Amino acid sequence: MDFETLVKTRRSIKQYEDTTVNDQDVQDAIELATYAPNHGMREPWRIVWVKKHRVADFSQLFGSLSFKGQTEKQAQFNDKLAPLAGVLLVVGPRDRRQKEHLEDVLAVGGFMQTLSLALHQKSIGSCIKTPGTMFIPELNDALNIQKEEMLYGLIYLTAQTSNEIKERKNSNLISEF
Ligand SMILES: Cc1cc2nc3c(=O)[nH]c(=O)nc-3n(C[C@H](O)[C@H](O)[C@H](O)COP(=O)(O)O)c2cc1C
Question: Mind listing the domains of the chain with CATH numbers?
Answer without folding.
Answer: 10-158 (3.40.109.10)
